[in-house]
Amino acid sequence: MIKVLIADDQELIRQSLRIVLDSRGNLEVTDAVANGQEAIASIRRSRPDIVLMDIRMPKMDGVQCTKIVKEHYPGIKIIILTTFDDDEYVYNALKYGASGYLLKGVSMDGLAEAIDIVHSGRAMINPDVAAKVVRLFSQMAQADFSIQVGETGIQELAKTEWKIIAQVERGASNKEIADRLRLSEGTVRNYLSIILNKLELRDRTQLAIWAVQTQVSKRYME
To answer: I need a surface site. Which of 13, 103, 158, 169 has the fewest CB within 10 A?
Structure first.
């Protein structure tokens, strides 16, 4: 029997997944929770084999939760199940140890198959996301697994810009950054454009990779 924990902030999705997965003979849903904090508390109690993890959740998002779970419970497998396929989410979730990344359009048979595959120790990535993964890691390989940034650009970054970089490192969307820093989404977009220009980076994905690789933003997080 494979024990599965569901973490999703939408109650309808949580309960629907619970009903469908519990109906399968080899799966047992141990809990269905609404955010990353609840997921960690549930994991301590029931030690599931697999966590189906949404990305955008209140209090603690799926990327941060994945990082914490894999640090403390490395044997637990995580499948990211989300409607979002943004590059930085893909990179960060896999960087922190997720074994699967599926979009919510996947069929229930496909989801059950993914759970079996990940439980067996293999990885499962939605075909729509796989091309992004290949491109990301190809980009990293061509750059010798390192994104280089000039020291001058780093020194020019303002305090608010560092805060935004820290949020990008965690996989936050523009809306989430805006909410957390009490800014408008337009202001966040403008800041990101300025940051990329100062650091001479091509796009947000390169910024996320650089931030994760160097962990340089940690000292600027509140």
So the answer is: 158
